């Protein structure tokens, strides 16, 4: 039950997007999650479950100057 995350296969199917991000210690407030070509809204992170075969792209924003 693999999910492709930024081009790499990971065994994370069955987790919610929120649980997945927390496990990765990802900056939940500063990240965009695309699932199968569609943006997952932050309000849905705890409702959307990753499924085998999903393609996930994570885009995080980093401030700087």
UniProtKB/TrEMBL annotation:
CDD domains: Ubl_ThiS. Gene3D superfamilies: 3.10.20.30. InterPro entries: Beta-grasp_dom_sf, Mopterin_synth/thiamin_S_b, Thi_S, ThiS/MoaD-like. SUPFAM superfamilies: MoaD/ThiS (SSF54285). Coiled coil: none annotated. Pfam families: ThiS (PF02597). PANTHER family: SULFUR CARRIER PROTEIN THIS. This is Thiamine biosynthesis protein ThiS. It comes from Lentilactobacillus parafarraginis DSM 18390 = JCM 14109.
């Amino acid at each position: 039950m693999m999910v492709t995350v930024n081009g790499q296969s990971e065994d994370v199917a069955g987790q919610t997007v929120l649980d997945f991000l927390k496990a990765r210690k990802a900056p939940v407030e500063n990240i965009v999650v695309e699932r199968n070509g569609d943006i997952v809204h932050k309000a849905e992170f705890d409702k959307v479950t990753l499924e085998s075969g999903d393609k996930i792209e994570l885009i995080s924003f980093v401030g700087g100057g």
